[in-house]
Amino acid sequence: MRLKAPNGQEFRIDQAQDGLAQHGIILFSGATLNELKSALNDWTVPYRHPHDVSPGVTVIRPNLIGETNAQGFTYEALPLHTDRAQVDSQPTIICCLYTQEAAVGGESLLLDGAEIAHSLLCRNLLAMADNVVLLSKGNRWRTVIKPYDSYAGFRIRYRNDSIARPHVTTCDARPLLDAFEAKVASPLVYALHAGEGYLIHNHRVLHGRYAFTGDRAAIRLLAKVARSSRSRSLNHGFSLRGYSSTMKREG
Ligand SMILES: O=C(O)CCC(=O)C(=O)O
Ligand SMILES: [Fe+2]
Predict the structure, then answer these.
(1) Cβ–ligand 1 contact at 78 (below 6 Å)
(2) What order do you get walking across the sheet with 165-168 strand by strand?
(3) Do strands 145-148 and 78-81 pair parallel, antiparallel, or not at all (unpaired)?
(4) Which domain holds residue 163?
(5) Residue 160 lies in a domain
(6) Ligand 1 centroid distance, CA of 79 (Å)
(7) What's the whole-model pTM score?
(8) 155 with 85: CB under 8 angstroms?
């Protein structure tokens, strides 16, 4: 299995957690489910999802058509989102291994939220962050981009679909949401083949896909970082320390 960041930097499997903390996104190729599971086993614990087939493991293929809140299991496009954005305790890590590629379409979309946070910070828009919330039926309002630790750390929750949508609670927060959504409009696009996939930090990176035809299939592992792990701070969010926006679009 080979691992690399979007800027081309390569990692060994035992460096995956550090690569993830640094880049938010690790792309892999030549991977098997067992290899990925054992790589995550040392430092994460499975996160249960309503659609999982065993703890933390969900098969993503079009087979639940008609069920509510199951757009992932259709042929439809999935707009950029963070998984379980509407619930209190979200998965920290998403590892998605593609096992069968689509006939047409189905490319994966990824957007590094550090890029969003950096841009909002540079434009002094984060003072209004408390006033951009996610509305979701039956769930309390949650902040879309939450600065903590004197603005050195952030956590993103975002969806704009039938499950949840962003909302500004005051007019002066509108420029913040507009700037956020302008970023959401231009993700990285990856055509991933069988054995390829991504490991992402779900409090930082937004993901989605284009619509497709054919038998596209993926296996998704959801996890939290183990409390004993050196990377446990990933469970709270991400930091812009060491982030360089010029690194992101190379390669
Ligand atoms: O199909 C994919 O590539 C991603 C699916 C997904 O993000 C989801 O079901 O939440
Ligand atoms: Fe997702």
Answers:
(1) yes
(2) 142-143, 132-135, 165-168
(3) unpaired
(4) 113-183
(5) yes
(6) 9
(7) 0.95
(8) no
